[in-house]
Amino acid sequence: MEETLAPIIGIGGVGAIYGRSLALSRRTFPWLPVSSGSSCGRIEPSSLGDALARQPAIEASAADAMLQRTFRELLTSLVGPRLSSRLLALPCQMSGRNDGWQEKAQ
Amino acid sequence: MSLLPEDSVHTTARRALALLHREADAARKELAVLRRDIADARLEFDSTRAACLMEANEQLVVAALRAREASDSMLAELNALSRASQFDELTDTPSRTLMLDRIDNALAQARRRGIRGAVLFLDIDGFKAINDAHGHAAGDEALRHAATRLTASVRGSDAVGRFGGDEFLVLLAEVAGESEVALVAGKMLAALASGGAEAGRSARLSASIGIALFPDDADSAPALIALADACMYRSKRGGGASFTFHSGHVAEAIGAAPGEPVLRRAITPLCDGGRSGG
Question: Could you say which of B88, B125, B158, B166 is catalytic?
């Protein structure tokens, strides 16, 4: 997702959406990590992967799904549903499946 | 008719043609270089434009999300401020302002529905002694303990709020009669005196309570509080660990002399300490 979006909204833009998604998802899953430099940092999959790995599978899966959903909703709120769908469809088309943050992180 | 020999004419023409060819080749090469330069310039322009667009997008996204974070933060501060103005920080009970508002609402309800309620003014006995002997932290703990115990003694529709210092206001929004109010007041004194699992050294408390009924005794929150406050002092002067009704006929109705503190004898065995006055 980062590879697809970074050429369009920059690494900082992707990092900012990711950081905000983490912050919003943390209200439901307080154990999710805090994104370092939430507004301009890179995505650090390792810290998310570590946090998810410490949780039971069901809890980790639910958090992963919420994080993805929140990311999509935020992107949609910024660029509109049509462009958001087109942008987010690209990674799926390229990989042939929808990789979650969890798979990406591990 | 030409004066030059024919060979000479041909030679001159060939030379001119060759010259033209050379010039055309040079022009073509120059044109190719120009085209390459234009293509390079276009590529550079496109890539610069793409980079600028990406940078602009990046800044817009970051700015938009920073604005949302700032908005969240301000909203949280606003909520905290709003709560701080409505709830006592130490005991997390409704503030004086909120209690006044609730009493006014209860009065309006009582008038509209023809029901009765009560305002209890409660002062912890011997609170200064707790502060002096054990420090302010112990005093704070005693107040939190009192708030918890008092709140547990009333219904969800009633309210307990810290009025200031070691004073609490209790609103019983709807009561069947005076005996019910006396029952709740006695329950509060017993709850304060009982200590409990969470009890520390300052957990066993006693209190002096003054009671005003509405709409009988007064028709405004400040007036009810003033009456209950005055009754509280009568309880305090009587030695504490008791409650006093404003209305003489009410005291008589529950078996006490008018204006005299009620229940001290009944509650005293439960209160070993904290009766040295507030």
Answer: B166
**Cβ-Cβ contacts under 8 Å for B134 (sequence gap 6 or more):** B201, B202
Nearest beta carbon to residue A13 from set B61, B68, B69: B61
* Contact (Cβ atoms closer than 8 angstroms) between residue B271 and residue B241: yes
Instruction: Say how far apart CA B181 and CA B179 lie, in whole Å.
Output: 5
For A79, nearest residue in chain B (alpha carbons): B61
Q: What is the ipTM of this complex?
A: 0.77
Under DSSP, the state recorded for B270 is G
Tell me the longest C-alpha to C-alpha distance in chain A. 36
Residue for token pair 């120009």:
B34
Q: Per the CB < 8 Å rule, is A16 touching B68? A: no
B54 with A7: Cβ contact below 8 A: yes
The structure tokens listed for B91 are 């005991």
Of A13, A19, A39, the CB nearest to B57: A13
Query: Does residue B261 carry a pLDDT above 90?
Result: no
pTM: 0.59
- Tell me if A40 and B57 make a contact (CB, 8 A cut-off): no
d(CA B224, CA B270): 29
In this complex, the residue of B54, B59, B61 whose CB is nearest that of residue A17 is: B61
pLDDT band at B197 (very low <50, low <70, confident <90, very high): very low
Question: Could you tell me the end-to-end alpha-carbon distance of chain A, in angstroms, rounded to an integer?
Answer: 15
Return the half-sphere exposure (C-beta side, CA atoms, 13 A cut-off) of residue B186: 15
Enumerate residues 65 to 104 of chain B having a beta carbon within 8 A of any beta carbon in chain A: 65-66, 68-69
Q: What is the pLDDT of residue B45?
A: 81
B104 catalytic per annotation = no
Phi-psi region of B126 (alpha: psi -120 to 50; beta: other; left: phi over 0): left
Tokens 């943050």 appear where? A101
Is residue B240 within 8 A of residue B207, CB to CB? The reply is yes
DSSP assignment, residue B131? H
pLDDT band at B253 (very low <50, low <70, confident <90, very high): low
